[in-house]
Amino acid sequence: MSAPEAERLARVTLNSVGEPGNLQLTAAVADLGAATVLGALRERRDDLGRDLAARLRAADPVRTLEAAEKLGLRFVIPGDPEWPNPLMDLARCGPLHERGGVPLGLWVRGALSLADTARQAVAVVGSRSATTYGCGVAGDVSAGLARVGTTVVSGAAFGIDQAAHRAALATRGPTVAVLACGADRVYPAAHKQLLDYIADVGVIVSEAPIGGAPTRIRFLARNRLIAAMAQGTVVVEAAVRSGALNTASWAAALGRVVMGVPGPVTSQPSAGVHQLIRGRDALLVTRAEEVLEAVAPIGTHTLQDLREEDGLRDRLTPQERQVLDAVPVRQSAAAGSIARAAGLAPAKTTAALGRLEQLGLVVEEANRWRLAGELESA
Amino acid sequence: MSAPEAERLARVTLNSVGEPGNLQLTAAVADLGAATVLGALRERRDDLGRDLAARLRAADPVRTLEAAEKLGLRFVIPGDPEWPNPLMDLARCGPLHERGGVPLGLWVRGALSLADTARQAVAVVGSRSATTYGCGVAGDVSAGLARVGTTVVSGAAFGIDQAAHRAALATRGPTVAVLACGADRVYPAAHKQLLDYIADVGVIVSEAPIGGAPTRIRFLARNRLIAAMAQGTVVVEAAVRSGALNTASWAAALGRVVMGVPGPVTSQPSAGVHQLIRGRDALLVTRAEEVLEAVAPIGTHTLQDLREEDGLRDRLTPQERQVLDAVPVRQSAAAGSIARAAGLAPAKTTAALGRLEQLGLVVEEANRWRLAGELESA
What we know:
The structure is a homodimer. Chain A has about 375 residues and is an alpha/beta fold. Chain A has 18 helices and 12 strands. A 9-stranded mixed β-sheet of chain A has the order 1-2-6-5-4-3-7-8-9, sandwiched between helices. In chain A, helix 2 (about 25-30) packs across helix 3 (about 35-45), helix 7 (about 130-145) packs across helix 13 and helix 16 (about 335-340) packs across helix 17. The longest helix of chain A is centred in the middle third of the chain and has 16 residues, at about 130-145.
């Protein structure tokens, strides 16, 4: 077995026995490598050593990786082509709430390369008990980001997270869901379809071991990944002392751009965001253009960028537009999956896909549909 | 005629021939005094001199002051006990939109001393086409300010201004309306009752000559007085490039605290405020306590201050509270005027006043009602 492969297996083992963002573990592995740390742990005869001994003996990384493959999961570690390098900033940052450090590895499920998605990414996070207003703005902002190819990173929770992912998906843009539970699990349960669709056309990622339940510690550790994966974090509606503000703190600690969308001062869910802006801890933003301006070098993004597609779309019926918006941007999907995403009956969807094909907007290959080349590069 | 009296008459004359905030005029008078400037103007034989000659000949300051007195107006100049000294900061500030300088004098109408009201004052300004949300928040903030004796300065316009004045009046707090038209005029016409009530228990002030119509130039000049009269300016809903933002610019130029109340990003009237906060030109505020914290030395105002009266008020019926809130804080008012302010029928108001008198909360004198001593000092 090659040395890198030993290192990968050691990381799988440590991932299965340690908690995400454990400060001692992430620091030791960053310093010494996982194989060395694992060896040292096996040698320990103290209390911690005895506690760990049974779990380490039970760990079978080869079988874990085989099981993962069957679940459609891969394990990505630093140095892999798919490893998102922005996460290395976590080595010089934290801790917050006793969590921190570069993850030992990430369980990844989905069509996109994690490294690719992190190249230009913005986190959009906020309250689970969001208002219609908050979800609307989160959707508008996320759609504007996704439309120009910026990855929308969020946590797949109810409320703002859900609105952010959905808008990115509807715009055929890249989106990443960072979970506190295992990447194979569905949490919240009501988001099964959403998570399946994200895995289909975007990517799901988690530091928690396969099958791991979401816990408070894992949420706190997860938030640092959301912040680190993105060049900036936009908070839309967040109660004072909420998880979204924890993500914002990580973004600030990482030197990322922290942004907040204001709302009515009479709306409790906006109170946390107002507090951030009041304290000059966040830049007030009202729309996607302002977010892009804040995270990108001056002049890179202009209003023009956001309007490029208009000409083509104007020729379509609303239903055709709905279907076109549901075709994934980077790979193909089955008609059934597109129908679900578009919220239309399969027959109507197939008819619309036929028309879109005639117009040269989509291409069929082996019973799956993808966007035609021209649009894809737009 | 005493020298100061000559200076006052010269200022009345110049006030009647020059436009508010005329840069040359305010600067020359600040340097040389009005009598000297007036003498020099009378000597001028150039175009400007000829233009002015007829108007200067027509000016009759003694008669103007007599007419003013009949209208209930007084002319206040620097050095008078009632002169609000914060306005002197205008000597070192500006111009904006070609307006600036210390006013030659102010026409004042109303019960309060202008100097007193300026001692602790906050301007609350915003859009004429304000939303229900904006007016509600402007009212809440203004009530919170007025309740602790902070003067609410505004411009008596529709929308936010009106809501600010009304809330201050309802809280029996001091309020100042700074007009762009003559202090004797009513603009907008629909605000006759409001302005009369402000004159009754607060104060109306204008730099424009008596009978002067409101013009764009006078609005711009007026805005500098609103900003200068107050320690801070709160903008609630303001379109981009609005008068309220002009007032905010003056406040910033004067080194006053500039504050903005955010709103939904989907609401056009909040766009100007969001722009201010985004540019770090304004501090985001959501309620009166935050405004007081920003304009006052740390610890001067606490949440406690705002709750002092609760014990007394809890014993009243809603209608009695409404009437008590309509009794002016610093002087007496007729029952009819209180009924109008309370929005209740005269009979109901009289009954409530009787009960409030029994409770020792109000005092009747010569058919006019005022707050009892204890409450007044609270």
